[in-house]
Amino acid sequence: MAPYSMNTLFQLENCTSLPDGFLDFLENLMYQSEAQKVFSQPMVWIGIYIAIASLFCILPMLADLLHGLKHKKLWFPCKYFTLNAASLTVIAVAMKLPVDLNNSMANEVDQAAKLGSMAFMCTIMANLLLSLASMDSKELLTNIIALCVLVITLVVNVCIQIQTGVVSNTSVVLNSHGDDNSFITYKNWLIAFIYVAMLLVLLMIHICSALMILKSKQILESKYKVAHETALKDLDLQQPGRVKNYGSDYKWSVVVILITQFTGVILGTIAPLSRYFASLSFKMSIIWIWNHIRVFKVESYCTQKLSDWKQSSIPMKLSSRRCKIFVHDLKVLSLSFCIGFQKMIVVACKMIAFIPIFIAIGFLSCFHCWKWLKVMFGASYNVSVETTTQLQHKKNVSQYVLQLQDDMELAERILTRISKSVNRLIQTAESQ
Prior knowledge:
mainly alpha; 4% strand
Protein backbone atom coordinates (compact mmCIF):
# COMPACT_ATOMS: atom_id res chain seq x y z
CA MET A 1 0.00 0.00 0.00
CA ALA A 2 1.21 3.55 -0.76
CA PRO A 3 2.85 5.60 2.06
CA TYR A 4 0.12 8.25 1.80
CA SER A 5 -2.58 5.65 2.44
CA MET A 6 -0.65 4.21 5.41
CA ASN A 7 -0.32 7.67 7.00
CA THR A 8 -4.05 8.26 6.55
CA LEU A 9 -4.90 4.97 8.27
CA PHE A 10 -2.45 5.69 11.10
CA GLN A 11 -4.12 9.07 11.76
CA LEU A 12 -7.59 7.52 11.71
CA GLU A 13 -6.59 4.87 14.24
CA ASN A 14 -6.06 7.64 16.84
CA CYS A 15 -9.70 8.71 16.48
CA THR A 16 -11.99 7.20 19.10
CA SER A 17 -15.34 8.25 17.61
CA LEU A 18 -15.18 5.97 14.58
CA PRO A 19 -17.73 3.12 14.29
CA ASP A 20 -16.61 -0.48 14.70
CA GLY A 21 -15.29 -2.05 11.55
CA PHE A 22 -14.89 1.24 9.70
CA LEU A 23 -11.09 1.07 9.69
CA ASP A 24 -11.18 -2.49 8.32
CA PHE A 25 -13.58 -1.41 5.59
CA LEU A 26 -11.41 1.61 4.72
CA GLU A 27 -8.25 -0.48 4.66
CA ASN A 28 -9.88 -2.99 2.32
CA LEU A 29 -11.10 -0.18 0.07
CA MET A 30 -7.62 1.36 -0.15
CA TYR A 31 -6.13 -2.02 -0.89
CA GLN A 32 -8.56 -2.57 -3.76
CA SER A 33 -7.79 0.90 -5.14
CA GLU A 34 -4.06 0.24 -5.09
CA ALA A 35 -4.57 -3.16 -6.69
CA GLN A 36 -6.70 -1.60 -9.42
CA LYS A 37 -3.89 0.84 -10.22
CA VAL A 38 -1.45 -2.04 -10.57
CA PHE A 39 -3.77 -4.10 -12.72
CA SER A 40 -4.55 -1.14 -15.02
CA GLN A 41 -0.90 -0.40 -15.83
CA PRO A 42 -0.85 -2.64 -18.96
CA MET A 43 -3.90 -0.84 -20.41
CA VAL A 44 -1.67 1.80 -21.98
CA TRP A 45 0.17 -0.89 -23.92
CA ILE A 46 -3.15 -2.45 -24.91
CA GLY A 47 -4.12 0.96 -26.28
CA ILE A 48 -0.91 1.05 -28.34
CA TYR A 49 -1.73 -2.46 -29.53
CA ILE A 50 -5.18 -1.23 -30.69
CA ALA A 51 -3.57 1.70 -32.52
CA ILE A 52 -1.12 -0.64 -34.29
CA ALA A 53 -3.98 -2.93 -35.32
CA SER A 54 -5.84 0.10 -36.68
CA LEU A 55 -2.72 1.07 -38.60
CA PHE A 56 -2.58 -2.41 -40.13
CA CYS A 57 -6.12 -1.79 -41.39
CA ILE A 58 -5.28 1.65 -42.78
CA LEU A 59 -2.16 0.63 -44.70
CA PRO A 60 -3.86 -1.90 -47.03
CA MET A 61 -6.74 0.55 -47.59
CA LEU A 62 -4.16 3.17 -48.55
CA ALA A 63 -2.41 0.64 -50.79
CA ASP A 64 -5.69 -0.10 -52.60
CA LEU A 65 -6.26 3.63 -52.99
CA LEU A 66 -2.81 4.20 -54.51
CA HIS A 67 -3.14 1.11 -56.70
CA GLY A 68 -6.44 2.35 -58.11
CA LEU A 69 -5.06 5.81 -58.80
CA LYS A 70 -1.93 4.41 -60.41
CA HIS A 71 -3.81 2.14 -62.79
CA LYS A 72 -6.71 4.60 -63.25
CA LYS A 73 -9.17 2.13 -61.73
CA LEU A 74 -11.39 4.62 -59.94
CA TRP A 75 -13.65 1.89 -58.58
CA PHE A 76 -10.59 0.94 -56.45
CA PRO A 77 -10.57 -2.87 -56.48
CA CYS A 78 -9.70 -4.63 -53.22
CA LYS A 79 -6.28 -6.04 -54.00
CA TYR A 80 -4.63 -5.70 -50.57
CA PHE A 81 -7.50 -5.10 -48.10
CA THR A 82 -9.78 -8.13 -48.40
CA LEU A 83 -12.16 -9.99 -46.12
CA ASN A 84 -10.36 -13.03 -44.70
CA ALA A 85 -9.37 -14.60 -41.39
CA ALA A 86 -6.30 -12.37 -40.95
CA SER A 87 -8.13 -9.10 -41.65
CA LEU A 88 -11.04 -10.08 -39.39
CA THR A 89 -8.60 -10.80 -36.54
CA VAL A 90 -6.92 -7.40 -36.94
CA ILE A 91 -10.30 -5.66 -37.16
CA ALA A 92 -11.45 -7.39 -33.96
CA VAL A 93 -8.37 -6.04 -32.14
CA ALA A 94 -8.94 -2.54 -33.55
CA MET A 95 -12.53 -2.63 -32.22
CA LYS A 96 -11.46 -3.20 -28.58
CA LEU A 97 -12.73 0.20 -27.34
CA PRO A 98 -16.41 -0.15 -28.37
CA VAL A 99 -16.66 -3.67 -26.91
CA ASP A 100 -14.86 -2.78 -23.63
CA LEU A 101 -17.47 -3.04 -20.86
CA ASN A 102 -15.01 -2.91 -17.93
CA ASN A 103 -13.78 0.69 -18.32
CA SER A 104 -16.24 3.55 -17.88
CA MET A 105 -14.31 5.91 -20.21
CA ALA A 106 -16.40 8.93 -19.10
CA ASN A 107 -13.90 11.53 -20.30
CA GLU A 108 -14.75 13.40 -23.49
CA VAL A 109 -11.61 12.10 -25.22
CA ASP A 110 -12.45 8.52 -24.28
CA GLN A 111 -16.03 8.94 -25.52
CA ALA A 112 -14.76 10.43 -28.79
CA ALA A 113 -12.34 7.54 -29.24
CA LYS A 114 -15.11 4.99 -28.61
CA LEU A 115 -17.39 6.66 -31.17
CA GLY A 116 -14.48 7.08 -33.56
CA SER A 117 -13.87 3.34 -33.48
CA MET A 118 -17.44 2.75 -34.61
CA ALA A 119 -17.01 5.21 -37.47
CA PHE A 120 -13.80 3.39 -38.36
CA MET A 121 -15.69 0.09 -38.46
CA CYS A 122 -18.26 1.57 -40.85
CA THR A 123 -15.43 2.72 -43.10
CA ILE A 124 -13.79 -0.70 -43.00
CA MET A 125 -17.01 -2.46 -43.98
CA ALA A 126 -17.60 -0.04 -46.84
CA ASN A 127 -14.10 -0.78 -48.16
CA LEU A 128 -14.43 -4.55 -47.80
CA LEU A 129 -17.66 -4.85 -49.78
CA LEU A 130 -15.96 -5.14 -53.16
CA SER A 131 -13.72 -7.99 -52.00
CA LEU A 132 -16.71 -10.36 -51.75
CA ALA A 133 -16.72 -10.85 -55.51
CA SER A 134 -13.26 -12.45 -55.52
CA MET A 135 -14.20 -15.37 -53.22
CA ASP A 136 -15.54 -18.79 -54.01
CA SER A 137 -18.83 -19.99 -52.48
CA LYS A 138 -17.36 -21.73 -49.42
CA GLU A 139 -14.92 -18.91 -48.59
CA LEU A 140 -17.66 -16.31 -49.07
CA LEU A 141 -20.03 -18.10 -46.70
CA THR A 142 -17.36 -18.56 -44.01
CA ASN A 143 -16.19 -14.93 -44.10
CA ILE A 144 -19.73 -13.53 -44.09
CA ILE A 145 -20.62 -15.62 -41.02
CA ALA A 146 -17.45 -14.43 -39.24
CA LEU A 147 -18.23 -10.82 -40.15
CA CYS A 148 -21.78 -11.22 -38.82
CA VAL A 149 -20.47 -12.55 -35.49
CA LEU A 150 -18.02 -9.63 -35.21
CA VAL A 151 -20.54 -6.91 -36.10
CA ILE A 152 -23.37 -8.35 -33.96
CA THR A 153 -21.00 -8.64 -30.98
CA LEU A 154 -19.96 -5.01 -31.48
CA VAL A 155 -23.57 -3.83 -31.81
CA VAL A 156 -24.75 -5.74 -28.72
CA ASN A 157 -21.89 -4.37 -26.60
CA VAL A 158 -22.57 -0.80 -27.72
CA CYS A 159 -26.30 -1.20 -27.02
CA ILE A 160 -25.48 -2.44 -23.51
CA GLN A 161 -23.28 0.63 -22.97
CA ILE A 162 -26.04 2.94 -24.22
CA GLN A 163 -28.54 1.28 -21.88
CA THR A 164 -26.25 1.41 -18.84
CA GLY A 165 -25.08 4.98 -19.52
CA VAL A 166 -21.45 4.16 -20.31
CA VAL A 167 -21.99 5.94 -23.61
CA SER A 168 -23.74 9.09 -22.43
CA ASN A 169 -23.71 12.86 -22.91
CA THR A 170 -20.45 14.81 -22.86
CA SER A 171 -20.25 18.45 -21.76
CA VAL A 172 -17.37 20.59 -22.97
CA VAL A 173 -16.53 24.05 -21.52
CA LEU A 174 -16.50 26.71 -24.21
CA ASN A 175 -15.85 29.88 -22.16
CA SER A 176 -14.73 30.12 -18.54
CA HIS A 177 -15.09 33.52 -16.76
CA GLY A 178 -15.01 32.98 -13.01
CA ASP A 179 -18.23 31.26 -12.04
CA ASP A 180 -19.82 31.77 -15.47
CA ASN A 181 -19.07 28.76 -17.65
CA SER A 182 -20.76 28.04 -20.96
CA PHE A 183 -21.05 24.41 -21.97
CA ILE A 184 -21.86 22.54 -25.10
CA THR A 185 -23.35 19.07 -24.68
CA TYR A 186 -22.86 16.24 -27.15
CA LYS A 187 -25.44 13.46 -27.11
CA ASN A 188 -23.01 10.59 -27.51
CA TRP A 189 -25.75 7.97 -27.11
CA LEU A 190 -27.53 9.36 -30.17
CA ILE A 191 -24.35 9.33 -32.23
CA ALA A 192 -23.66 5.77 -31.09
CA PHE A 193 -27.20 4.76 -32.03
CA ILE A 194 -26.69 6.20 -35.53
CA TYR A 195 -23.45 4.23 -35.91
CA VAL A 196 -25.23 1.07 -34.75
CA ALA A 197 -27.88 1.58 -37.41
CA MET A 198 -25.21 2.16 -40.06
CA LEU A 199 -23.36 -1.00 -39.03
CA LEU A 200 -26.54 -3.08 -39.27
CA VAL A 201 -27.39 -1.62 -42.68
CA LEU A 202 -23.88 -2.32 -43.96
CA LEU A 203 -24.08 -5.85 -42.60
CA MET A 204 -27.39 -6.44 -44.39
CA ILE A 205 -25.88 -5.09 -47.61
CA HIS A 206 -22.94 -7.49 -47.23
CA ILE A 207 -25.27 -10.45 -46.72
CA CYS A 208 -27.54 -9.52 -49.63
CA SER A 209 -24.55 -8.88 -51.87
CA ALA A 210 -23.11 -12.27 -51.00
CA LEU A 211 -26.38 -13.97 -51.99
CA MET A 212 -26.42 -12.08 -55.30
CA ILE A 213 -22.76 -12.86 -55.98
CA LEU A 214 -23.36 -16.59 -55.64
CA LYS A 215 -25.91 -16.55 -58.46
CA SER A 216 -24.16 -13.87 -60.51
CA LYS A 217 -21.01 -15.97 -60.68
CA GLN A 218 -22.98 -18.90 -62.02
CA ILE A 219 -24.47 -16.70 -64.76
CA LEU A 220 -21.11 -15.21 -65.69
CA GLU A 221 -19.43 -18.62 -65.69
CA SER A 222 -22.03 -19.97 -68.11
CA LYS A 223 -21.58 -16.92 -70.34
CA TYR A 224 -17.82 -17.35 -70.15
CA LYS A 225 -18.03 -20.95 -71.30
CA VAL A 226 -20.11 -19.96 -74.31
CA ALA A 227 -17.80 -17.05 -75.17
CA HIS A 228 -14.72 -19.22 -74.66
CA GLU A 229 -16.00 -21.88 -77.04
CA THR A 230 -16.82 -19.21 -79.63
CA ALA A 231 -13.38 -17.66 -79.26
CA LEU A 232 -11.72 -21.05 -79.68
CA LYS A 233 -13.65 -21.66 -82.89
CA ASP A 234 -12.65 -18.25 -84.25
CA LEU A 235 -9.04 -18.92 -83.28
CA ASP A 236 -9.05 -22.22 -85.12
CA LEU A 237 -10.34 -20.50 -88.23
CA GLN A 238 -7.97 -17.53 -88.14
CA GLN A 239 -4.82 -18.80 -86.50
CA PRO A 240 -4.32 -22.48 -86.13
CA GLY A 241 -1.48 -22.57 -83.49
CA ARG A 242 -4.69 16.43 -29.81
CA VAL A 243 -5.77 16.47 -25.31
CA LYS A 244 -4.20 16.23 -21.82
CA ASN A 245 -6.99 14.97 -19.50
CA TYR A 246 -7.24 11.19 -19.69
CA GLY A 247 -10.08 9.62 -17.71
CA SER A 248 -9.71 5.92 -18.50
CA ASP A 249 -7.07 3.30 -17.83
CA TYR A 250 -5.87 3.63 -21.41
CA LYS A 251 -4.50 7.13 -20.54
CA TRP A 252 -2.61 8.85 -23.36
CA SER A 253 -2.90 5.88 -25.69
CA VAL A 254 -6.55 6.84 -26.29
CA VAL A 255 -5.32 9.88 -28.20
CA VAL A 256 -3.11 7.67 -30.35
CA ILE A 257 -6.08 5.41 -31.12
CA LEU A 258 -8.31 8.41 -31.85
CA ILE A 259 -5.83 10.02 -34.25
CA THR A 260 -5.02 6.73 -35.99
CA GLN A 261 -8.61 5.68 -36.53
CA PHE A 262 -9.68 9.20 -37.52
CA THR A 263 -6.99 9.13 -40.21
CA GLY A 264 -8.31 5.75 -41.31
CA VAL A 265 -11.85 7.14 -41.60
CA ILE A 266 -10.63 10.01 -43.80
CA LEU A 267 -8.52 7.82 -46.09
CA GLY A 268 -10.99 4.97 -46.14
CA THR A 269 -13.87 7.17 -47.26
CA ILE A 270 -12.28 8.03 -50.61
CA ALA A 271 -12.65 4.60 -52.22
CA PRO A 272 -16.33 4.00 -51.23
CA LEU A 273 -17.25 7.48 -52.47
CA SER A 274 -15.52 6.82 -55.78
CA ARG A 275 -17.26 3.44 -56.09
CA TYR A 276 -20.55 5.25 -55.45
CA PHE A 277 -20.12 6.94 -58.82
CA ALA A 278 -18.88 3.76 -60.55
CA SER A 279 -22.22 3.30 -62.34
CA LEU A 280 -21.34 6.30 -64.49
CA SER A 281 -18.71 4.16 -66.21
CA PHE A 282 -21.51 2.68 -68.34
CA LYS A 283 -22.49 4.22 -71.63
CA MET A 284 -25.31 6.72 -71.17
CA SER A 285 -28.38 5.82 -73.18
CA ILE A 286 -32.15 6.07 -72.92
CA ILE A 287 -32.41 2.35 -72.12
CA TRP A 288 -29.69 2.60 -69.47
CA ILE A 289 -31.39 5.61 -67.81
CA TRP A 290 -34.82 3.92 -67.96
CA ASN A 291 -33.43 0.75 -66.35
CA HIS A 292 -32.12 2.81 -63.43
CA ILE A 293 -35.34 4.80 -63.08
CA ARG A 294 -37.25 1.53 -62.58
CA VAL A 295 -35.88 1.08 -59.07
CA PHE A 296 -38.69 -1.25 -58.01
CA LYS A 297 -37.76 -3.83 -60.64
CA VAL A 298 -35.60 -6.49 -58.99
CA GLU A 299 -33.56 -8.70 -61.31
CA SER A 300 -34.04 -12.43 -60.96
CA TYR A 301 -30.40 -13.15 -60.07
CA CYS A 302 -30.77 -11.00 -56.92
CA THR A 303 -33.12 -13.52 -55.33
CA GLN A 304 -32.47 -16.65 -57.40
CA LYS A 305 -30.25 -18.33 -54.80
CA LEU A 306 -32.89 -17.92 -52.09
CA SER A 307 -35.55 -19.17 -54.50
CA ASP A 308 -33.45 -22.27 -55.22
CA TRP A 309 -33.13 -22.96 -51.50
CA LYS A 310 -36.89 -22.42 -51.11
CA GLN A 311 -37.73 -24.96 -53.81
CA SER A 312 -35.15 -27.53 -52.74
CA SER A 313 -36.06 -30.50 -50.60
CA ILE A 314 -35.17 -30.83 -46.92
CA PRO A 315 -31.89 -32.75 -46.49
CA MET A 316 -32.99 -34.17 -43.11
CA LYS A 317 -34.77 -37.51 -42.96
CA LEU A 318 -37.78 -37.23 -40.69
CA SER A 319 -39.89 -40.26 -39.86
CA SER A 320 -42.99 -38.30 -38.90
CA ARG A 321 -44.95 -36.84 -41.82
CA ARG A 322 -46.30 -33.99 -39.64
CA CYS A 323 -42.76 -33.01 -38.63
CA LYS A 324 -41.70 -33.06 -42.26
CA ILE A 325 -44.62 -30.83 -43.29
CA PHE A 326 -43.95 -28.46 -40.37
CA VAL A 327 -40.24 -28.13 -41.19
CA HIS A 328 -41.02 -27.64 -44.89
CA ASP A 329 -43.62 -24.92 -44.19
CA LEU A 330 -41.23 -23.23 -41.74
CA LYS A 331 -38.48 -23.27 -44.37
CA VAL A 332 -40.77 -21.84 -47.05
CA LEU A 333 -42.05 -19.13 -44.70
CA SER A 334 -38.53 -18.15 -43.57
CA LEU A 335 -37.10 -18.05 -47.07
CA SER A 336 -40.13 -16.13 -48.38
CA PHE A 337 -39.44 -13.50 -45.71
CA CYS A 338 -35.76 -13.47 -46.69
CA ILE A 339 -36.65 -13.03 -50.37
CA GLY A 340 -38.91 -10.09 -49.55
CA PHE A 341 -36.23 -8.57 -47.33
CA GLN A 342 -33.65 -9.09 -50.07
CA LYS A 343 -35.85 -7.27 -52.57
CA MET A 344 -36.31 -4.40 -50.10
CA ILE A 345 -32.52 -4.03 -49.70
CA VAL A 346 -31.98 -4.14 -53.47
CA VAL A 347 -34.64 -1.46 -54.07
CA ALA A 348 -33.14 0.73 -51.31
CA CYS A 349 -29.66 0.39 -52.85
CA LYS A 350 -31.03 1.24 -56.29
CA MET A 351 -32.70 4.37 -54.94
CA ILE A 352 -29.42 5.47 -53.32
CA ALA A 353 -27.47 4.64 -56.50
CA PHE A 354 -29.83 6.81 -58.57
CA ILE A 355 -28.46 10.00 -56.92
CA PRO A 356 -25.15 10.14 -58.91
CA ILE A 357 -27.05 9.15 -62.07
CA PHE A 358 -29.42 12.08 -61.55
CA ILE A 359 -26.39 14.38 -61.11
CA ALA A 360 -24.82 12.99 -64.29
CA ILE A 361 -28.04 13.48 -66.27
CA GLY A 362 -28.18 17.11 -65.15
CA PHE A 363 -24.52 17.64 -66.03
CA LEU A 364 -24.91 16.07 -69.49
CA SER A 365 -28.05 18.11 -70.14
CA CYS A 366 -26.15 21.31 -69.34
CA PHE A 367 -23.25 20.18 -71.52
CA HIS A 368 -25.47 19.43 -74.55
CA CYS A 369 -27.34 22.71 -73.99
CA TRP A 370 -24.00 24.55 -74.02
CA LYS A 371 -23.00 22.84 -77.27
CA TRP A 372 -26.37 23.73 -78.80
CA LEU A 373 -25.90 27.39 -77.82
CA LYS A 374 -22.46 27.39 -79.42
CA VAL A 375 -23.99 26.16 -82.65
CA MET A 376 -26.80 28.71 -82.47
CA PHE A 377 -24.42 31.63 -82.00
CA GLY A 378 -22.06 30.44 -84.70
CA ALA A 379 -19.19 29.24 -82.55
CA SER A 380 -17.02 26.74 -84.33
CA TYR A 381 -16.24 23.47 -82.67
CA ASN A 382 -14.78 20.20 -83.72
CA VAL A 383 -16.89 17.09 -83.83
CA SER A 384 -14.96 13.88 -83.47
CA VAL A 385 -16.17 11.24 -85.88
CA GLU A 386 -15.32 7.63 -85.22
CA THR A 387 -13.83 5.86 -88.15
CA THR A 388 -14.91 2.44 -89.28
CA THR A 389 -11.74 0.93 -87.82
CA GLN A 390 -12.38 2.52 -84.42
CA LEU A 391 -15.96 1.28 -84.36
CA GLN A 392 -14.87 -2.20 -85.37
CA HIS A 393 -12.17 -2.25 -82.65
CA LYS A 394 -14.72 -1.09 -80.07
CA LYS A 395 -17.11 -3.82 -81.13
CA ASN A 396 -14.39 -6.47 -81.04
CA VAL A 397 -13.40 -5.47 -77.48
CA SER A 398 -16.96 -5.20 -76.13
CA GLN A 399 -17.89 -8.74 -77.16
CA TYR A 400 -15.28 -10.15 -74.76
CA VAL A 401 -16.66 -8.24 -71.74
CA LEU A 402 -19.07 -10.38 -69.73
CA GLN A 403 -21.99 -8.56 -68.07
CA LEU A 404 -25.05 -9.70 -66.16
CA GLN A 405 -27.25 -7.34 -68.17
CA ASP A 406 -26.58 -7.35 -71.91
CA ASP A 407 -28.44 -4.07 -72.52
CA MET A 408 -25.82 -2.09 -70.54
CA GLU A 409 -22.71 -1.06 -72.48
CA LEU A 410 -19.46 0.11 -70.96
CA ALA A 411 -18.06 3.47 -71.98
CA GLU A 412 -15.30 3.53 -74.58
CA ARG A 413 -12.64 4.68 -72.12
CA ILE A 414 -13.43 1.72 -69.84
CA LEU A 415 -13.20 -0.69 -72.77
CA THR A 416 -9.85 0.82 -73.76
CA ARG A 417 -8.50 0.39 -70.21
CA ILE A 418 -9.70 -3.21 -70.10
CA SER A 419 -8.04 -3.90 -73.43
CA LYS A 420 -4.73 -2.37 -72.31
CA SER A 421 -4.84 -4.27 -69.01
CA VAL A 422 -5.43 -7.59 -70.76
CA ASN A 423 -2.68 -6.86 -73.28
CA ARG A 424 -0.22 -6.23 -70.43
CA LEU A 425 -1.16 -9.54 -68.84
CA ILE A 426 -0.66 -11.35 -72.15
CA GLN A 427 2.75 -9.72 -72.66
CA THR A 428 3.79 -10.61 -69.11
CA ALA A 429 2.73 -14.23 -69.61
CA GLU A 430 4.60 -14.48 -72.93
CA SER A 431 7.80 -13.09 -71.42
CA GLN A 432 7.84 -15.72 -68.65
